[in-house]
Predict the structure.
Amino acid sequence: MLSDRLRCCVPGCAHSAARVTVPECVEVMCEAHYALASPAAQARRARYEDRLRALQQIWNDDAYFDRLVASGKYLKMCSVLSLASENAERAWGDIKDEVLGAAAASRDVGEKVGAAA
């Protein structure tokens, strides 16, 4: 059975998001954990997501699509769209790696403090 909520991808986090709010997502990250990513990584992800979204809107425009096919640039647009999608996925992976690393480091510090006490 498919849940109507998606849990934060950081192990041990109890936060979740409604699937209705983010239907295209397979993974989500709560705001608290997302804030652990560097501003540069967040900005890079935002740029790549904006670029992908803009290209998808163009792709979904029937008039533009017909002109694209007529001009013979269909395969070029496919390549551009594929690259934009890969860049957005890579940027999400970079965010996730940073956050998981920071979360693991904070858990390790907490365990060491608890063990020392």
Notes: Confidence is low (pLDDT under 50) at residues 112-117. The first strand starts at residue 5 and ends at 7. DSSP finds four helices and two strands in the chain.
